[in-house]
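User: Sorry, what's this?
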Amino acid sequence: KPGISERELGLAFHERTAREGGYPVLGCIGSGPRSAMPNVEPGDRKLEYGDVIRFDVGGRYRHYRADISRIAVLGEPTERVRQYHRALHVGVLTALEMIRPGVKTSDVFDAAVKAVQREGISHYKRSHVGHGIGIDGYDVPNLTPSSTVVIEEGMTLCVETPYYELGSWGLQVEDMIVVRRDGIESLMSTDGALKVLDR
């Protein structure tokens, strides 16, 4: 709600993580123009109506890391935020549909970026659209255009499509999955759709 600070949001997230048996890992929590800072730490800025709120957060459970990202808007989002977030979400979903053993990580990268461009961010560019995760927050493989790694069963991956307009807002969808023999198993309890908060 308006008046809550980013620090308070971070504290609530970390308390919930610890209460459910995880170990909190400080992530990126930014609101309004601060949501466009890629590695933002939660600060004293208080939420206002119209703010984009970006959570790129994680934790540790039984020594293994988690890394996810979700976006909410306090109040009604602009049409541009809706359109761009939808494009980023489609990019992640396209990548997830493609991931299975035997697929090249570079092909996953190409599919995700092209989907985002096709869905409305024609100038979208990225150096990667995800990474492996395990005991460390970043592990192999990286989902890059030059990667020669072939996806294998049992890999745990984060698939992400961030986009930042500095001074305005930042958007990001990031899902965690495990590669199974015939596709993927999602490790997410929520979907990546834009969350609209009306209070």
